[in-house]
Amino acid sequence: MNPSPMILVGARKVFFETFGCQMNVLDTELMIGALQVAGYEVTAHLDDADLIVYNTCSVRLQAENKVMSRLGQIRSLKAARPDLVIAVVGCMAQKDGAALKKSAPHVDLVVGPGEIDHLPSLVRRVESRSDESLVATEFKPVQFQRDVTLRPSRYQAYVSVIRGCDVYCTFCIVPYTRGREVSRRPEQITEEVRRLAEDGCREVTLLGQTVDHYGKEFRREGVHLGTLLESVSGIDGIERVRFVTSHPKYLSDDILRSVGDIEEVCEYLHMPVQSGSDRVLRSMRRRYDTGQYLERVARARELVPNVRIASDFIVGFPGETEEDFLKTADLMERVEFSQAFIFKYSPRPGTPAADMEDDVPLEEKKRRNQHLLKLQDRFQRKRNESMRGEVVEVLVEGVSRRDPAKWTGRTRGNEIVVFDRVEKNSSIEGSRVQLRIVDSTALTLFGEALS
Ligand code: SAH
Ligand code: F3S
């Protein structure tokens, strides 16, 4: 019998760089899977790539600028090797489409998030007709037979449960780049998680822009995020389940009860508030006021003992006065968020807020940003300090990057804990261990393994 010709002599190589959110990280894994089937292997070097893919983000101008500068850097590569295929995929591709080709003519392929499953065939089309370049920005339900071996770590995986967004906050580009909200069928999700678990995955993070609105299409069947959390948690091998991002309006008591009751579901919510001023929230069209937000926080703390709540903030939204800003700072102090992601408002062309006057000067946005960062740092320091002596469970993620003599893991509340590597626990990666907290900084807890 002849051996099948599986030796990939001179396999084609693809270089990937990913910008933006976890959804993009997952989309990149899906694209890598599809390209591997098509005979590609991943390279970490631009120089030996036959295909370069930038998976882009449009949420703030800064993210787009980074991509444009990358494209500038590889212009000479393309000039030296005209066969090289350059693809811009993701949100910038969707938003700018053909215009992107104008500012970067050496780009061969522009592919929106709704068409990433066609990347291999699109690349083939460009390769076979070297004079052509393609722009693919239709919204289609992305259908991947996922290669479950591709994920951020052996023990963790992202799983997309709902794509797109229908909320249309006035500052946000996402509904325009990722399209309408569509939920995946629950059995399709559980089947994927089952395959991940069989391959050794222990923790899954369910992803969606408004993940707590999951299952709108299947409500009549009684499906909501809570029921999905329950079925995913019941899968053999799955020890931890997380979900991001929650919109305050949709985070119902039913969902909170599931988080509180199901052992595998971590006590962690990412529920962006954006602003502490009702006037600004209205202008952002966030669909809740601070009273409703605080009510959700109180309910979460009641139904989910020891819950950690993380949030996003935007400073310098059009018309945000000092008084509005101080209300945001006040809300931050009242809630005591476990983590805060703070952004300076960046006008996104095509969104309603882009028509409002961007009237907070950059210097002032920076000052407000710094102010919130300081408040958050102070709180995290205090909170971490108060955890001294506490026993926590971490899922061990690997060797600490800063100090190879230590392990790093994550608590159920998403805090990072670093602890000593000792001989006898040489293979504890991916397992859960009990640690006593002995020290901390604002960002990191230090623990000691309980034998
Ligand atoms: N629903 C998604 C939102 C994605 S954008 C989620 O909650 O993950 C992520 C964050 O980026 C938003 O919560 C918001 O705080 C910030 N953001 C979005 N558009 C922005 C803009 N135009 N300027 C500054 N920050 C923005
Ligand atoms: Fe963006 Fe608001 Fe949706 S922040 S992703 S429009 S919930």
Overall description:
By secondary structure, the chain is α/β, with parallel strands linked by helices. It folds into four domains: 12-136, Methylthiotransferase, N-terminal domain (Rossmann fold), CATH 3.40.50.12160; 151-266, Transcription Regulator spoIIAA (2-Layer Sandwich); 298-386, Transcription Regulator spoIIAA (2-Layer Sandwich), CATH 3.30.750.200; 391-449, OB fold (Dihydrolipoamide Acetyltransferase, E2P) (Beta Barrel), CATH 2.40.50. The chain is 34% helix and 22% strand. It has 14 helices and 19 strands. The strands form five sheets. The protein has a six-stranded parallel β-sheet with strand order 2-1-3-4-5-6, with helices on both faces. A five-stranded mixed beta barrel has the order 15-16-17-19-18. Helix 1 links the parallel strand 1 and strand 2 (40-42). Helix 9 runs parallel beside helix 10 and helix 13 (322-335) runs parallel beside helix 14. It is globular and about 65 Å long. Residues 1-7 have low confidence and may be disordered. FE3-S4 cluster (F3S) binds at residues 165, 167-169, 172, 174-175, 209-210, 247.
Proportion of beta-strand residues: 15-25%
- Helix/strand-derived category reads alpha/beta
CATH superfamily of the largest domain: Methylthiotransferase, N-terminal domain
Q: Fill in the CATH topology of the largest domain.
A: Rossmann fold
**Total count of domains:** 4
Number of distinct helices: 14
The distinct ligands, each listed once, are: S-adenosyl-L-homocysteine, FE3-S4 cluster
Major sheet summary line: 6 strands, parallel
Radius of gyration: 23 Å
